[in-house]
Amino acid sequence: MNGLSMAEVLASRKLHGMNMLTKRKKRGIFKTFLANFGDPMLRILLIALGIQVVFVFNSGQWIETLGIALAIFVAVTVSTLSEYGSESAFEKLQEQASAIMARARRDGEVCEIPVSEVVVGDIVMLGTGEKIPADGRLVQGHLEVDQSLLNGESKEAKKTVLNGDPKLDYLCPCSLFSGTVVTSGEGLMLVTGVGDKTEYGKIAGELQEEMPTSPLKVKLQGLAKVISLFGYIGAGLVAIAYFLNLWLSGALVGADFPFVFEHFLRAATLVVAVIVMSVPEGLPLMITVVLSSNVKFMLRDNVLVRKLNGIETAGSMNILFTDKTGTLTHGKLEVVGVVTGTGEFQQLDKFDKRSELAKILATSLTLNTQSELTKAGKAVGGNSTDRILLEFAAKFARDRWTRQSQTPFNSRDKFMSTILTDGRVLLKGAYEVLAPRIRRVFNKNGEIKSFTNKPKLEKQIQELSAQAHRILAVMIDDVLVGLVAIRDQVRPESITAVNRLTEAGIQTVMITGDAKETAVAIAREVGILESETASQIVLTSDELSKLSDEELKKILPQLKVVARALPSDKSRLVRIAQSLNLVAGMTGDGVNDAPALKKADIGFAMGSGTEVAKEAGDIVIMDDNIDSISKGVSYGRTIFKSIRKFLIFKLTINFCAVAVSILAPLLNIDTPITVIQMLWINLVMDTLAGLAFGGERPREEYMRESPKCRTESIINRHMWWQILLTGAFTAMISLWFLTSHYMDQIRLARGPAYALTVFFAFFMLINILNSFNARTHSMNLFSRLSRNKPFVWIMGTVTVIQITIIYIGGTIFRTVPLDILHLITVALLALTVVPFDMLRKSLIRKDGDTT
């Protein structure tokens, strides 16, 4: 008990290390920036950019090259900042850990030392309000400790001395943990773990592990392979068609080298244009801009996005592991009602605050406590139960009794007592301990009556306990004043939110440090659990630890509640869910939650939680409300739909353009779309159209769909059919229009340049009109259009710009001004894509949404 000598301190430090968290070598921001160029979509863009740079000197078309480079730079920069910033969670943890001093006994004297100098074997002195500097066990005294930093539970843990060498864990009454706070009592701690070997240190180590790959990135990897294959095959076919047309026309017969080389360069330029055209280079930029633009809307719904990918990931979530305290419940214990001596339970709003019984109850609670009220009416001092009861009593009128002496609550007796100057004894504690003392009861008028309703009273206690109420008896001598029911109340909106998540196909699993009975009661009330059966499983942490990973995988779809949970349980559940290709979400507010928040595909940190949890999470729920999580899911699903709709629109244009470029030469039509026109279409349709599709507001209908599997392709079967059918239709009508008698007459009357301008106008208008088809799967093209005003004005702007290009494009765009009659004619012909797509929608309507 005299502590270590300086020689023993040095030996312990050499053997066990410093009481500091080891920081792994951090990858620099520049290396992180370079590593992000490995993104699958960006690799295709880099190839396209390289090809563009090679030929830009020949063509002089630098605008598209600059556009690709800008899209790459913005996407990589945003990804880098998001990833680099995630490491600040560890830095916050280190900052918290080092900001305290400790009192230790060394060489028989008490000295104050920096927490980093505490070593294994030190005897540390602890008192009310002090933060525990390391892991250890209580060897002298009694303490109450706030362990919410590590276990997330608001109830204080009572610590007592145990003989022998007990296993140190959260349930052991002599275990003390680094970072937790002593709320009452005094004692001595023997340090058994420092630095990385503490529970706090283990959490810090987990925070430095790599983040999981987002579901969107997994989907884009598959898309990149498909698009690159499509682009290269299309480019090859265009080159073959170009030279085949030359050969069939006899132009290559007897041609000299300069002639062949000139056509080779023209073919190569066309090939580059097709490859660039096939890549939706606006997609990374579109995703970044869309995610960013939705951040301000989500903040209005109390959802603060820290990492942009978190928005889309929330929409893909299959399973949500949620805390009870502060998320499903209000996060604080409060008095919810009183059971009178007659056995009747009266909720707080129905309890007669002016009755004589209320005055007696309030006076008893005001005097029989170790807490005090501030001028602002806030209770301070004492334990959490004392503070709750005193703030409750302050709302009532009280008698002027005088206190003489007091015996504080202790875990052995399970009650506290106060002796008044007139000799009466006030008692407050567990009903089962005080029940043998009860002989009489107060009625509502404050009159003492005989105790004749014990069976009714105890039945009421059983019912309330089954509903997660904590019951405390209040007595004066042998007279029962009443039973006070305390509970962390369920948020009313939690029931709606859980039901909404269930309708969205998301499995909700409640994880809590509470006892199994309390956990089951809350889970039933919010709708997570209907009945404890084989199809709805409730486990304790001990039961969970006995299951192998393979056994846990089998029962995970039926798991509803984990009670008495440890921090390690959360990380394990996330890992198991991810191994089943589920997109796992996790809520949390404490330091103990930080590793699971970071490991999860989407981490929801609570706004009232620790800074460490917020730094580790992807999204911060400002109002600690699970209903806000469901709103985040709605945003995520809408954004994913927007990405899919943009891809339908863009790949339909790509398919049509490549098909026309391949087949037109075989019909003796030389380059119906020039390289600069093709690049212009790509620039406008990728960038501006991407922004237009990204303006959709959340739709409740998406919350009635099942979540997408992690490995599901970003382009599904319905989408491929829409791309291929609409692409084939626009390609066929384009080729028909090019070879039609109408176009022959225009060529004869106005010349080839005028005819190709007419076709260019038609090609742009048909794709602009098809954007309305791709925007909604409804037969009504104007469905919810008023909620996406950016779509209207962006596509309107594109139309105006296109018509302007027709009239002022000149030789650069190979256009000449059109007569208004011809412009109206091509607009009407382009409009045919609308009824065609309506026909397609009517045929597949029974299959539901195409995206």
Brief summary of the model shown:
The chain is of the alpha+beta class and 851 residues long. Helices cover 50% and strands 17% of the residues.
Give the secondary structure arrangement, pairings included.
Layout: H1 6-16, H2 29-35, H3 40-59, H4 63-86, H5 88-98, E1 101-106, E2 109-114, E3 123-126, E4 135-146, H6 148-151, E5 157-159, E6 175-176, E7 181-193, H7 199-207, H8 215-248, H9 257-278, H10 282-300, E8 303-305, H11 309-316, E9 319-323, E10 329-339, E11 345-347, H12 356-367, E12 372-373, E13 379-380, H13 384-393, E14 403-407, E15 415-420, E16 425-430, H14 431-434, E17 440-442, E18 448-450, H15 454-466, E19 470-476, E20 479-490, H16 492-503, E21 507-511, H17 516-526, E22 537-540, H18 541-545, H19 549-555, E23 559-563, H20 567-579, E24 584-588, H21 594-599, E25 602-606, H22 611-616, E26 619-621, H23 626-663, H24 675-693, H25 717-738, H26 741-750, H27 752-775, H28 789-808, H29 810-813, H30 820-830, H31 833-844
Parallel strand pairs: 9-21, 9-24, 17-20, 21-23, 22-23, 24-25, 25-26
Antiparallel strand pairs: 1-2, 1-3, 3-7, 4-5, 4-6, 4-7, 8-26, 10-11, 10-20, 12-13, 14-15, 15-16, 16-19, 17-18, 19-20
Helix pairs in contact: 2-4, 3-4, 3-9, 4-10, 8-9, 8-23, 9-24, 10-23, 10-24, 11-23, 12-13, 16-23, 23-24, 23-25, 23-27, 24-27, 24-28, 25-27, 25-31, 26-27, 27-28, 27-30, 27-31
Describe this protein's structure.
With 851 residues, the protein is of the alpha+beta class. It has 31 helices and 26 strands. The strands form four sheets. Strands 10, 11, 14, 15, 16, 17, 18, 19 and 20 form a nine-stranded mixed β-sheet that branches. An eight-stranded mixed β-sheet has the order 8-26-25-24-9-21-23-22, with helices on both faces. Strands 1, 2, 3, 4, 5, 6 and 7 form a seven-stranded antiparallel β-sheet that branches. A hairpin with a 5-residue loop joins strand 17 and strand 18 (448-450). Helix 26 (741-750) crosses helix 27 (752-775).
